[in-house]
Specification:
Blueprint: H1 4-18, H2 25-37, H3 47-55, E1 80-81, E2 87-88, H4 103-118, H5 124-136
Helix pairs in contact: 2-5, 3-5
Amino acid sequence: MNALPFTIAVFSLASLIALPAQADPRATLLAGYAREAGLAGPDAFSAARGEALHQRQAGGGKPDTPSCTRCHASDPRQAGRTRTGKPIAPMAASASPERYTDPAKVEKWFKRNCDEVLGRACTPQEKGDWLAYMLSR
């Protein structure tokens, strides 16, 4: 009896079992925002509120960025443009699958864009709602 096939099978199975579970970075972000906001869970976020935030003329930030849609398209599946004309990839996860997979980048852009548009940091609730909207599109 040749033990090699059995050994390979056992080793392969053990390797699969030992693989660490890969958490979905988007779900991890939403769960973190839910915790920060004191919500029961990520299901408490509203894509409708996120859309309203995206479309809203805030007026609290810089005069040349009165809303998210100034640079990012009204339809997040479409590309946007910076004030200098540089293209911005679509914000919707369906159109830009790599978006929202790096938590550091997400936080960097929330910090910059919330300050420019709202004139303040976004709340965890706003971040979660806005992200829920982008993930639904």
